[in-house]
Automatic annotation (TrEMBL):
One of its GO terms (cellular component) is peroxisome. PANTHER family: PEROXISOMAL 2,4-DIENOYL-COA REDUCTASE (PTHR43296), PEROXISOMAL 2,4-DIENOYL-COA REDUCTASE [(3E)-ENOYL-COA-PRODUCING] (PTHR43296:SF2). It catalyses: a (2E,4E)-dienoyl-CoA + NADPH + H(+) = a 4,5-saturated-(3E)-enoyl-CoA + NADP(+); a (2E,4Z)-dienoyl-CoA + NADPH + H(+) = a 4,5-saturated-(3E)-enoyl-CoA + NADP(+). Keywords: NADP, Oxidoreductase. It comes from Cristinia sonorae. One of its GO terms (biological process) is fatty acid catabolic process. This is 2,4-dienoyl-CoA reductase [(3E)-enoyl-CoA-producing].
Length: 274
């Protein structure tokens, strides 16, 4: 992560590129928004005028994050406790969001679970748990929000990964789960396009300072290694994902749906040529 490379591909704030009012009057519903990448995605949407509901399992963390996000952006943020594995809890979370804000325009399906485990150390329940959080959680989120997103002719972003494009060791469970998430978005885009709804996937590469990076770094490949080998010359930053989010939800992306956007500093291309 040399300074030279940082100058070539600097991290920028979306407000340096997009107007701060583009999402004024709009509402974001974000699962997994209490921390990490999804919290950063939510913050950027709020910086451009949206109010938001952030959904997760840990109410204390959500409440602290919601206060922080409101303070930093001047917009409203509603913390809502729900486990995405529960359709009932998600329906209740959507009802609370509608009660508070009256509409849902944008949905981020971001709640995810992960750990490194070889197949020999991955129990049936371990596999099932990740599928239930990532894949069923995405399905449950779409089911619960779709009537409102249709009403507003809104848009979805699913947070996926790039590790299932080819075999990634110790990631059988997440690879299967994220491949299905990509498939959900593709089919949703085609079915719902005629109703004015768009759906796209963001597949983040290695992003520094996140729980995912901490969990997935190994002795063989640390966060620093990822930064050094990345064609864009540095590790990803949460703002890189946030910027892509603002673009994909904005009207500038009105004819973009059913796409899977790797936001990864070129890592995927590097890996395909190795
Ligand atoms: C092997 C494991 C394990 C591990 C859990 N399990 N951790 N097996 N190695 N390190 C197994 C357990 O033994 C159990 O199976 C089953 O998984 C369920 O575990 P629980 O702890 O009971 O489940 P739960 O409390 O629901 O927790 C879900 C979780 C947990 C996914 C296991 O890690 C979690 O809550 N994570 C949320 C936060 C998170 O993962 N963030 C990272 C997101 S990053 P048995 O058989 O014993 O009952 C991300 C990026 C993906 O997703 C893309 C990367 C590029």
């Amino acid at each position: 992560m040399g300074t030279k490379e940082q100058q070539i591909h600097p991290v920028v704030d979306s407000t340096a590129v997009f107007k701060e009012t583009i999402f004024a009057g709009k509402v974001l519903f974000c699962t997994g928004g209490g921390s990490g990448i999804c919290k950063g995605m939510t913050e950027s949407m709020m910086r451009h005028g949206a109010n938001a509901a952030i959904v997760g399992r840990k109410l204390d963390r959500l409440t602290a994050s919601a206060e922080e996000l409101s303070k930093s952006t001047g917009k409203l943020c509603l913390p809502v406790q729900a486990d995405v594995r529960s359709p009932e809890q998600l329906r209740a979370a959507v009802a609370k969001t509608i009660e508070k804000f009256g509409r849902i325009d944008f949905v981020i399906c971001g709640a995810a679970g992960n750990f490194l485990a070889p197949i020999s150390g991955l129990s049936e329940n371990g596999f099932k748990t990740v599928i239930e959080i990532d894949t069923l959680g995405t399905y449950n989120t779409v089911k619960a929000t779709l009537p409102h997103v249709r009403n507003s002719r809104g848009s979805y972003i699913m947070v996926s990964a790039t590790l299932h494009y080819r075999g990634t060791p110790y990631q059988i469970h997440v690879s299967a789960a994220k491949a299905a998430v990509d498939a959900i978005s593709n089919a949703l885009a085609v079915e719902e396009g005629p109703h004015g709804v768009r759906s796209n996937v963001i597949a983040p590469g290695p992003i520094g300072g996140t729980e995912g990076m901490d969990r997935l770094s190994t002795k063989d490949k640390t966060a620093t290694d990822w930064g050094l080998i990345t064609p864009a010359g540095r590790l990803g930053d949460i703002r890189d994902i946030a910027n892509a989010t603002v673009f994909l939800f904005s009207d500038a992306a009105n004819w973009i749906t059913g796409q899977i956007l790797a936001v990864d500093g070129g890592n995927e291309h590097l890996r395909t040529t190795q």
